[in-house]
Design goal:
The protein is α+β, with helices and mostly antiparallel strands and 141 residues long. Helices cover 19% and strands 44% of the residues. The protein has two helices and nine strands. The strands form three sheets. A four-stranded antiparallel β-sheet has the order 3-4-5-6, with helices on one face. Strands 7-8-9 form a three-stranded antiparallel β-sheet, with helices on one face. Strand 1 (2-6) and strand 2 (12-16) form a beta hairpin. The chain starts with a strand and ends in a 12-residue tail after the last helix.
């Protein structure tokens, strides 16, 4: 079986789903990544990542060489996504249900931060509407 996934910028990647064992499947993960953005290097010495999948948002914080802190937020737990920006950069705040803290990523490119916000809110609304759509053909613009 071959499926086509459309990623950021309209680039089409084709992946064949060969039979994999349960161990390989759990290592590789079953959800497709819609968007991955990173903080801008000169302003953040060890760039952080924001990775948006069909069922979760992952924030990877790097504080030093070979050290990282990974926060995974299920889409169903996201209450709001806020973007604060200036002329050059933006900050993304993600509010999780039943928590008063906000997850924050600074020094993102402004257009990427806005795109990430719209994508996360769209995934949240699709989940809330429970339309049952297949998200493997989801296209980001």
């Amino acid at each position: 079986m071959v499926k086509t996934i459309i990623y950021e910028g309209g680039t089409k990647l084709t992946e064949s789903s060969a039979p994999v064992s349960d161990d390989q499947d759990s290592i590789q993960g079953s959800s497709s990544t819609f968007l991955k953005i990173s903080t801008v290097f000169p302003f953040v010495l060890f760039p952080d990542d924001l990775i948006i999948d069909e069922d979760k948002v992952t924030i990877v914080r790097r504080t030093f060489f070979a050290s990282e802190e990974i926060h995974t937020i299920p889409i169903k737990d996201i209450m709001d996504v806020i973007v604060s920006h200036n002329i050059f950069f933006a900050t993304v705040y993600i509010k999780r249900a039943f928590q008063s803290d906000l997850y924050q990523l600074n020094y993102l490119k402004k257009d990427e931060a806005m795109r990430a916000r719209l994508l996360i809110l769209d995934l949240v609304s699709r989940l809330a509407n429970d339309t049952g759509e297949d998200l493997t053909s989801f296209e980001t613009r």
